[in-house]
Automatic annotation (TrEMBL), chain A:
Keyword terms of this UniProt record: CBS domain
Highest taxon above the source species: Bacteria
Boundaries of every ACT domain copy: 139-213
Lineage: Bacteria, Bacillati, Bacillota, Bacilli, Bacillales
Stored InterPro entries: ACT-like_dom_sf, ACT_dom, CBS_dom, CBS_dom_sf, Diverse_CBS-Domain
UniProt protein name: Acetoin utilization protein AcuB
From TrEMBL, chain B:
Family: Belongs to the histone deacetylase family.
MF GO annotations: histone deacetylase activity
Keyword Lipid biosynthesis assigned: no
Record's protein name: Acetoin utilization protein AcuC
Amino acid sequence: MIIESIMNTSVPTLTPTNSIKDALQLLKEKRIRHIPIVNSEQEVLGVVTDRDLKEATPSSLASIENLEVLDLPLEQIMTKNPMTGHPLDFVEEAASIFYDNRIGCLPIVSQGKLVGMITESDLLYKFIELTGVHQPGSHIEIRVPNRTGILYEVAKVFYEQNINVLSVLVYPDKVDSNSKILVLRVETINPLKLIEAIRAAGFEVLWPSLPGTRL
Amino acid sequence: MKKNAVFVFSENQLGYKFSDTHPFNQKRLSLTVDLLKEMKALSLSDIVEPRIATDEELSLVHDSSYIEIVKKASIDSGDSSIYEPYGIGTEDTPTFPNMHEASASLVGGTLTAVDYVMEGKATHAINLGGGLHHGFRGRASGFCIYNDSSVAIKYMQEKYNARVLYIDTDAHHGDGVQWSFYDDPNVCTISIHETGRYLFPGTGNITERGTGEGFGTSFNFPVDAFTEDESFLEIYRTAFREIVEHFKPDVILSQNGADAHYFDPLTHLYGTMNIYKEIPKLAHELAHEFCDGKWIAVGGGGYDIWRVVPRAWSLLWMEMNDFKTPEGRLPKAWLDRWSKESPVPFIPTWMDPNPLYETIPRKLEITEKNKQMLDKALYMIRNHQ
């Protein structure tokens, strides 16, 4: 999956000469936390975040006389030359950039111009979608031997039971390094017959388990 | 004369039947009606025939293209590939003859119940054939084709201009109803269910609070697997009362799935009959305190149709009619009549034996976690006060 398919394309922006007050207003209005700062060519010059703004403005507990600070231009507080991404980057790559650099947003730039943005929340939502929990389904965990063709064997059981698989995640098995844990979401409210069939095929079902055994 | 309560039922409701081996089995209605008659708690004059919902009524929440597909599947189960995108013809909701009529009649039953209450002909009404809370606008899911509760809520809004509170104690999240009114500030949905981490449908997190104008009118209380009576009831009582006081509904619609019981084969909660004694008490009390008595109850899940559902739903009807909570043994005639058919030995008493199961090692932690969840889910309305 590439960034282009998940990025937000209508991104509110400001220019370096806009004031801190403008930025505060925009954050509040749009309920966002990051603003790319661009010039008239839509080239990204910096990023201003809600944290930059909090650091630059007086405490909400202080007296409100010292407000000229709100008129200062964003140029003075923005992070210059921020990390950017490309629409054709992979979502996984973007996730690593977020994690390694501990940043909260990534302006997406193509041919030198801002074309979109993704935030940590957008990425997190994508990963929620990958786990399949946004569609009605049941959760099944199976321990399988780590060898070629195992997914085929497991999938065959689902095929025979006529049950649609919404998502598959493969985890390392912390207990047994010769195994993997498959976490599947399947489109049924009644996984009982399916579980019997998985057991009959020789696999260990970790969830749903007999009540009590996982406590 | 205004009746206290009506019981919507007809043998036709048993026609909502996927197959002989399917876990959703409306024989539980026959078992319940028979038990109530044996208790002399249900007489012919209490029973009202359900009507069939019209296409126009179904369209209050369902897409007309979906209704057409269900109609088609009723007469022609041939090519399942055209039905599958609509969630029909699957293992959960296979096609069956007359599935449209059977499903529309369950919706009609809930509408009949609604009309009795909203026109002032009865204070309370019950349709145990309803409660199909997983039905979506254009898709069947989790044994549910049409969503009777969603249709009924929309119908109450349009016809009676009512502000409706929906409370769902089925062990599965009431997703279909929640999403139908997710952006509507005049409908409040509450669902208490086993956490979606482990149980179908997977949604129902406390962070699902509604959207846009409807933000703050969806409430979810996902309890941990192995939750027992006390913790379940603490959440139910606290949440239900605080939300009713906050939302001030005109009418309460309760979904009474009976699958949070220890015996239920599809879920992992550890409720006993005690919760089914207590759940209707509070619904009854709050309906009188806030809604002039207006309370409509529907059924829902419940897959131990022998040992759990008949007792649970009988307790619901008896509470609705101010019968004294029955104690001791179930009527012998009823036990004799059904024990030959039942694949499991009956619990011969109204309440479950104590203890019903071995002690849960992590009870304290589960209770604590549920309590924390409760406070988080109610944080917003508590802060408004």
